[in-house]
Amino acid sequence: MKTSGGSDAMKRRAGESAAETVDDGDVVGLGTGSTAAHAIRAIGARVDGGLDVRGVATSFASRELAVEAGIPLRDLDEVTGPDAGGIDVAIDGADRVALGDGVADRVRGTDRVVGDLIKGGGGAHAREKLVDSAADRFVVVADPSKETEILDRPVPVEVLPSARGVVADAVRAAGGEATLRRAERKDGPVVTDNGNLLLDCEFGEIPDPEALATTLATTPGVLEHGLFVGLADEIHVGTAEGVRILET
Ligand SMILES: O=C(CO)[C@H](O)[C@H](O)COP(=O)(O)O
């Protein structure tokens, strides 16, 4: 499982805290990345102790880890649709978590945080978004290095291989710069679990993630982008002292 920096102890605290919110009988979305991996291991330990859950993996890597941890798995299409029970909770990591100033426009008048995310550092954001948005409750696990006032990192965009140039042109027209993600241990690009390519799209600060999300989502050739706007319900931030739980 790839790790993206930050303290592993803090990530573990966040993952274990989120795993504690899973109830007996739940269908659980299992996120991707080193922080979500801690949650998967902690859920596995609870399954060993008798917890009855079904997991829905968001990537090849999270499936592999869930099998190792002894979590029974279901396919997404087995648990969603008119006659299925759905996903009770999804637990997933993030590359950036926008907290705003605590009273951002969308939640002004409350003490809740914004909670918009950039995901896709592991290139799994297409399936992550499917699972996380289908869940009744989406719990984000992070360490403090992910927190920011305004989203400010490149947005991963999964594209059909032949659409690479078309999407890069559209990103440029929207004020950004697209860079093909290259593999570290092979010559050539990273290929996603879905057989597509990834463009990391630099826009600088993103003051209006909702507008950019609409632009990217409506660009032909884009399979999915890594802006998760208005999806997170809770954010568990592992710290040196313990865990901070924020609500959106
Ligand atoms: O979005 C993701 C994968 O596509 C990950 O959740 C994100 O990159 C965070 O990873 P980590 O917990 O290793 O920092």
TrEMBL record:
Q: Upper lineage ranks?
A: Archaea, Methanobacteriati, Methanobacteriota, Stenosarchaea group, Halobacteria
Q: Name one GO cellular component term.
A: cytosol
Subunit note: Homodimer.
Q: Which organism is it from?
A: Halorubrum halodurans
Give the metabolic or biological pathway: Carbohydrate degradation; pentose phosphate pathway; D-ribose 5-phosphate from D-ribulose 5-phosphate (non-oxidative stage): step 1/1
Catalytic site: 128
Enzyme Commission number(s): 5.3.1.6
Q: Which domain of life is it from?
A: Archaea
- Physiological role: Catalyzes the reversible conversion of ribose-5-phosphate to ribulose 5-phosphate.
What gene is behind this protein?
rpiA
Keyword annotations for this protein? Isomerase
Name of the protein: Ribose-5-phosphate isomerase A
According to the record, the residues making up region (Disordered) are: 1-28
